[in-house]
Amino acid sequence: MRIPAHSVCTAIRDDIVSGVYERGSRLTEELLARRYGVSRVPVREALRTLESEGFVVTRRHAGACVAEPTVQEAADLLEVRMLLEPLGAARAAQRRTEAHLKVLRGLVRLGQERARRGEGEDLRSLGGWFHETLAQASGSPGLIALLTQLRHKIAWMYAVEQSARPVDSWAERGAIVDAVARGDAERARALTAQHAERSTAEHRLRRPDLPGRRTAPGRPVRSSQHGVNTAGVRH
Known about the structure:
By secondary structure, the chain is mainly alpha-helical. The chain has helices spanning about 5-15, 30-35, 40-55, 70-95, 100-115, 120-135, 140-155, 165-180, 185-200, and strands at about 55-60, 65, 160, 205, 215, 220. Helix 1 runs parallel beside helix 7 and helix 4 runs antiparallel to helix 7.
């Protein structure tokens, strides 16, 4: 059975995000095909997709290599996220289904319970699922794809610290779901923007030794002179 290129792409992307392949390392079709047990054809297609997403670059005389994002590129991702997530929430208020609401409310309920118990690892996973579901509720395939790609790249470049006020953070998510349930697009947009702004301070570049001051808590100064070294975690 031929394994589809998108499955190979997902596997390679996950390994890049988790740090299996270091920044700047070569990605040869032969070695990748052997690692994932596929032919070189889906590997070649996967590398093209990953290059379009910014995870891979093609270098002269070296071929495909893992990209080496700059501090500026990392900072830009958080700014783009703060623009797109509120848009997704506003769309969700207009297009969500009852199934979306059921999942979102269930995640908020679990998140609030885990927050009261101080179960940080569970909260990270629940937070990721919450934002994935909220994006899906937007009913916009293009926007969903962009937000999914953003989450992958942010997880690649940043570590997310445990919120100092997890109960408040999940109360914010609950308020977002209430606005979405009421169909109040502007309220959903505003609450999501506030939540994204606060959560930005919990993000830390995976290379703490990179030189440069910070413009605000958790927000690095933009600079294109230094690569961001990383080993990914889920966002």
